[in-house]
Amino acid sequence: MSQRPLEEILHPKSIAVxxxxxxxxxxxxxxxxxENYKGKIFPVNPKYSEIGGLTAYPRVxxxxxxxxxxxxxxxxxxxxxxxxxxxxxxxxxxxxxxxRFSETGRKDAxxxxxxxxxxxxxYNLRIIGPNCMxxxxxxxxxxxxxGMPMESGKVGLISQSGQVVGEIVSFAGQAGVRFSKAISYxxxxxxxxxxxxxxxxxxxxxxxxxxxxxGVRDGKxxxxxxxxxxxxxxxLVVKGGRGQAGTRATVSHTASLAGxxxxxxxxxxxxxxxxxxxxxxxxxxxxxxxxLPPAKGRNLAVMGGSGGSSVLSADQCEEAGLExxxxxxxxxxxxxxxxxxxxxxxxxxxxxxxxxGDHDAAxxxxxxxxxxxxxxxxxxxxxGPWGRRAKNFSLEKHLTPYNMIQRFNKPAVFIYQxxxxxxxxxxxLAKIRGEIKGKLIEWNMAVYPTIRRAARALxxxxxxxxxxx
Length: 469
Fold this sequence. Notes:
Elements: H1 4-9, E1 14-18, H2 24-36, E2 40-44, E3 50-51, E4 54-55, E5 69-72, H3 79-89, E6 93-96, H4 107-122, E7 126-128, E8 134-136, E9 152-159, H5 162-174, E10 179-184, H6 193-202, E11 208-213, H7 222-230, E12 235-239, H8 244-254, H9 261-271, E13 274-276, H10 279-291, E14 300-303, H11 308-319, H12 329-337, H13 359-371, E15 377-381, H14 395-404, E16 412-415, H15 427-442, E17 446-448, H16 451-468
Parallel strand pairs: 1-2, 1-5, 5-6, 6-7, 9-10, 9-11, 11-12, 12-13, 14-15, 15-16, 16-17
Antiparallel strand pairs: 3-4, 8-10
């Protein structure tokens, strides 16, 4: 299928919201467009003459001038009339937020879907949906919720669920990830999962593809489409409806049929994509692909932990499939030659607490580990300002050594937990503790709240490059 129709839909110069209102979901589509979209916006609802300060129209055909894209927030039984209106107007794309079609399991609803598709094809009108949230495209100023980030990034998202798009964009966004575009496609009446994979595979704005899928519409085409996309970009896939309860929920959510999980895992692996179990793991792995250079091996340097955290980090990293190798003798020799009193004490993980508070000495050890060819990966614990008074603490000076770890061009992840002492922290110190993560993200660093999550993401990240070999 040519990608031109989808490309045209994603660059509208004018958008109409049918079923628009000052409240409810109709207003939910209109408000973010008013906040960000630079093209013409037309609310459509025969009950109003004005909505949100904009002139409202009774129907799409009554709008003066061309309309490229229409968002439908009206009941299912009114959609056929809307299709006729859009077809006569020359609309290119119709996003059907409207639900209660084949996902209900009713024969008449499924027949209505078929009739809608038949009529839209007669007008060369293309559909996203039905039963979906549609398009999020920061560069074009298109969003379906207020507050979605409007900075563009390199991650593209394909999702049958609109709620999942909101969650992924929010959680990944809090860690510094930004999106090229995301599409929620619901029942996939017209464009399906294969069309979106083909589109994102050739999209120059997208370097990483995320996918949440409940069931495949085009079973014959899907393996090849997934393989083609995964051959040019990392593709990370979460499958919904893996168990019996999930399978039942899938049918009622998007009218999709879920297949065998074992078959699915084999299909994804053979295609060269990465199967991910849940949204938390998807977000964590996205951080790795978004911020890290390619991985060359599993040997991990762990630095900055202290006492029990060092022991736990070694255990959890090994359990995740990483290799926490002993400290190379060359590093000990260099430490001894430099007069370090802990040359025969330090190891991997490197317990920085034994440097007796000498911040610079601790990081000299860390840099020796980072530059050594035996280490492929780096995990660094980011400490807060402990009990220092805020007036004697420089956030940038404190964090710069962590940022310098990235100069070694090895995959490096950072563990930071915003721990506060409610009794001893003064207001300024508490503020600094909260600002640390923000500064790390500003410097494009992959920051995780726990060892376990970082280790799991790193291991899957390395596995991707191992499989490509």
